[in-house]
User: Fold this.
Amino acid sequence: MELKNKKVAMYCRVGTLDQTDIKKQEETTKKLAQQHGETNWETYFDKGYSANNTDRPALKKLLDDIEKGKIEKVYMKDISRLTRNTKDFLYYTKDYFPKHNVKVIIADGFNEEKANPTWKEAGILQKRERVKAMKEFIKANPKGKIHSER
Assistant:
């Protein structure tokens, strides 16, 4: 189904229920979308969900809207918002989004127009993101306590 007034999507995800970080993601993606002249968008939020799997309510809704032909572009702060799993990363960026003619625009500059990642490069990217996330977690939780309200 081809819709005349397609929207762009902004996908924001945090592994905690931290409102501050998800709002920063929304601000970053909104600013980027506006720089690209976008005016018609929907924001999809997943709060408290890990990037290690793709079983997330807002991501499912986004993918459903893509399947229905409602979305032409997806904006994200960085690729780890979508996934930290190399296999999923390659599936979405190399198969799923191109199959549905959806452009992915990442605020950190990793866009499909500029990159053609190999398995090795994608693995390095994902490892870098996991290390960064672990360092941030340790800094925020110096006593090693984990809280989950999900």
In short: The chain has a mean pLDDT of 80. The longest strand covers residues 7-14. The chain has four helices and four strands.
